Each structure stands twice: as C-alpha cells, then as structure tokens.
Amino acid sequence: MKKTAAAKKAASAHRGASAKKAAAPAKRAASAKKAASAEKATPVKKAAAARKATSSRKATSSKKAAPAKKAASVKKAPAAKKVVVAPKKAAARVKAAPAKAVVHPPGDESRTALVRRARRINRELAEVFPYAHPELDFENPFQLVVATVLSAQTTDLRVNQTTPSLFAKYPTPEDLAAANPEEVEEILRPCGFFRAKTKSVIGLSKALVEEFGGEVPGRLEDLVKLPGVGRKTAFVVLGNAFGRPGITVDTHFQRLVRRWQWTGETDPDKIEAAVGALFPKSDWTDLSHHVIWHGRRICHARKPACGACPIAPLCPAYGEGETDPEKAKKLLKYEKGGFPGQRLKPPQAYLDAGGRPAPPLGAG
C-alpha cells in the first residue's frame, strides 16, 4: 500500500515536471511574441513621446518668448526716445555754431584760443608782407575815394591804368562835378560798368562840393552819404588817407576770414564786427592789407597754394588747395616788376637801397 502511494506520488510529480517542461516552450513563445509586439510598439511610443516632448518644448518656449517680447518692448521704448532726442540736440549745435561768431567761435575752439590764433596769423602775415599797402595809386583823399569806387568789379591794376587820364583832366572835385558824363564814360570804359561808375564819381564830386566845401570828410557817417561809397570804401579812405583804423571787407577778406574760421558770418557788416572784436583797433588797417595781399597772392579762391603758405600750420582749411610744395609754388602770383602788384613780387623788390622796406607809392 505504501509503495503504491509513493509510486502514485512520484508519478504525479513526474507528470507535473513533464507538464512544466512541455509548458515552458509555450511560455517562451508567448513571451517572445509579447516582446516582439512590445518592440514593434516601441517606435510608435517613442514617436508619440517625441511629439509630446516637442509640443511641450514649443509651449515652454512660447511661454518664455512672451516675457522676452515684453522685455524687448520695454527695452526698445527708451531707445525710441533717444532716437527722437538725439537729432534735436545735433540740430541745436549746428544752428548755434554760426549764429554769432563773436560769441560762439566756429568749431570746438575756445574764444581765447581763437583770438590767439587770429593774432598770430596777422603777425605771420606782417612778416611775409611788411610792405603791404593799398594797391591803388593816389596822391590825396579825393583821388583815393574815386579810385576805390572805380575798383568795384575790377582789379586795382586796371583802375591804376585808368585814373591817370581821369585825374589829369579832372584834378579836383569841382572839375569832375562839372564834367561831361559822356567824356567821363569814355575814360572809364576799361573799368567796366562805366556808366554806373561815371554817375557815382560825378555824383560824389558834386556832393563834396555842395556839402563839404570840396574836401573829403574824415568821418564814417559823412563818407557813407556820398554816392557809390559804402562802409568798405569809407574804411579804405579813413585808414589810408586819414590814418583812422578801419577794416576793409572786400571779397578776399571775406573768403579768408571764413576759411580761417574767424567767423561764420556772410554779411560784410557782421564780418567787420566779428573780426574787429578779435584785434585791437590799432591793428585794423594793417590787418586788412595783410589779409587782402595774402588772398591775392597765395590763398586764391579756386586753387589756394597750401603747400607754399606761411600760415599753413594755423589754417583749419589746409588741404583745400595744392599741398605739394613744388606744385604750390607754381600757383603763387608773381609780378616781373613795377607797381602796383596784382602778383606777388619777391620781398627785395620792395626794399630801398639801404635794405629797408620802401614806402608805399601814393602814400605821400
């Protein structure tokens, strides 16, 4: 009985083991199928997970971008204000510089520096042109005022070629006041604008006879009342015939003082006031001669001879003309001889036998 029970138990155990062994391949096959299905599903899940992650990142970036945009808009606001304000300041500076050159010198130069530079330029020019003087021939104030009126829109050389015949025939204001206009026009024809100039010189001669007893007045307010006489002509007469200081603002003077940035004014009267404030009154007449001579001989309107200019280190406009020394020398205007000079003559041409500057012709 006992053996039978044990045999039954062993047989059942054997059957269970064999069943397990038989079931093992089935389980392995099932697990293999499950793993295969899982492997097939993995790319799909991964793709879904990737899409989910991408969407979440986009959402996150969009959330972060919103404050960034707000911050950018906040930051841009001050920038917009700067853009609006900056041009106003720049425009104000541009307008302020040339407004009143006496108070506001052009550029960044201080008032004191401008005065020092201007006076040094005048000293340098005085050494270059110690013989500078009016280049109109005259023997008395009457001849000077007439010659200065005739010099408008022409050269001093042309006037000096014309006035000898005029003064030989009409030596006094009384003679010219009673002259036949047609005869005077014929004499003045080479000067250009001869009809208008004839009317002026006859008119001023009559005014001298009727209002001043045939004498040229020595006051500015009287001179400017004469026909054809403005402030420029009046200062030429006052400075060179009466020894009273004055600034002659002709075309050369205007061009150079603006080129040197002494003033930004364009009106002759304002230029006169601005430049006059930079110098002692006693320097005004000689200053006018120095500047005009320099403008006629070296600092020309179209081709300034920068490379041969004695004041080049002091000139803000250096480089507007020829800077090569050899080429610049060819631009200098020389005269072979004789007076007056529309062209630069060597300094020794103006020296007397003792080596001293010769006195200006027409000065006495």
Automatic annotation (TrEMBL):
CDD domains: ENDO3c. Residues 1-79, 337-364 are annotated as: Disordered. Belongs to the Nth/MutY family. Residues 7-79 have a biased composition (Low complexity). Its cofactor is [4Fe-4S] cluster. Keywords: 4Fe-4S, DNA damage, DNA repair, DNA-binding, Glycosidase, Hydrolase, Iron, Iron-sulfur, Lyase, Metal-binding. The gene is nth. PROSITE patterns: ENDONUCLEASE_III_1, ENDONUCLEASE_III_2. Coiled coil: none annotated. NCBIfam families: nth. This is Endonuclease III. The keyword Iron applies. Residues 150-297 form the HhH-GPD domain. Its EC number is 4.2.99.18. Binds 1 [4Fe-4S] cluster. It catalyses: 2'-deoxyribonucleotide-(2'-deoxyribose 5'-phosphate)-2'-deoxyribonucleotide-DNA = a 3'-end 2'-deoxyribonucleotide-(2,3-dehydro-2,3-deoxyribose 5'-phosphate)-DNA + a 5'-end 5'-phospho-2'-deoxyribonucleoside-DNA + H(+). [4Fe-4S] cluster binds at C299, C306, C309, C315. It comes from the Bacteria.
